[in-house]
Specification:
There is one protein chain. The protein is globular. By secondary structure, it is mainly β. Helices cover 10% and strands 27% of the residues.
Length: 268
């Protein structure tokens, strides 16, 4: 079945969606003379995710796209998306909007975006934003992730750069090896497993780097710093289960009392 008015790349995605096959447009980009060969309109992605294609017996539909330029606004606000969304190494022209959406797994690894709005959304499974670049805020306010939220190696900017107040991640929150230009807000966030900020550089001259007032972590908190970036200004009152087991003593972490007051280390 062909979709109406589809480009060649969009037709490949249209045909691959019912059986859940990967469409890798990065290979086309390397061998194609025209950049338009990797463009997929956001409206086509929306039509697929909201059920325009019939499923194929014996297969699980899924959107698996790599190396595409996503043209237009991908707006799934308030929608129930019953399929996995895997869009890796993609370049989004506009900020995707999934406010108050209900989705399965989301994987945007190595993508470039002008922000992402997941406020009040529910992700049933893994949310992977690893190694993504976003010059505008990643908005995760009141987002609920039933699996792990993986922000490993991200490069974020904005005011604030990461807005994750009242976020619930039922497993781990991973943000190691990241560069964040702006404040990280994690007021009243709940992490069921571990919170990992190892080797992450948060840059917010004259302001708070990590504001985690009311942050609750069920497992360990790991935030070792590199010699090149040892200083942070933190404002938080945290509760970490069994901190004597999970938190090493040292100058970068508070004493193991479980309920922490304000922690301040002035940036240079």
């Amino acid at each position: 079945m062909s979709g109406r008015g589809l480009s060649e790349s969009e037709q490949l995605l249209w045909d691959a969606f019912p059986p859940g096959r990967l469409v890798d447009l990065s290979r086309r980009a390397r061998g194609a003379p025209q950049a338009s060969d990797t463009v997929v309109r956001a409206e086509i992605i929306t039509r697929l995710l909201l059920g325009e294609r019939e499923p194929v017996p014996g297969h699980v539909p899924a959107l698996r796209l790599q190396g595409a330029t996503v043209a237009g606004l991908l707006d799934l606000s308030g929608c129930d998306v019953p399929h996995a969304v895997v869009m890796t190494n993609c370049d989004f022209e506009r900020e995707p909007r999934l406010e108050a959406a209900s989705t399965k797994l989301i994987d945007l690894t190595h993508s470039k975006l002008p922000g992402l709005d997941l406020r009040d959304a529910r992700v049933d499974g893994l949310f992977r934003f690893a190694h993504c670049r976003s010059a505008r805020p990643l908005r995760l306010t009141r987002t609920r992730v039933s699996g792990t939220a993986d922000l490993t190696g991200v490069c974020l900017g904005g005011t604030p750069a990461l807005q994750a107040d009242s976020l619930v991640a039922e497993r781990d929150f991973l943000c190691r090896d990241a560069v964040v230009s702006g404040e990280v807000l994690m007021w009243s966030a709940q992490i069921g497993g571990t919170l990992v900020l190892e080797n992450t550089r948060i840059i917010n001259p004259g302001g708070v780097t990590l504001n985690g007032d009311g942050l609750v972590v069920g497992g360990g908190f790991f935030a070792g710093t590199t010699p090149q970036a040892p200083d942070h200004r933190l404002h938080s009152r945290w509760l970490v289960d069994d901190p004597r087991r999970q938190l090493p003593a040292g100058p970068e972490v508070p004493p193991p009392q479980g309920d922490y007051g304000v922690i301040t280390r002035a940036s240079r």
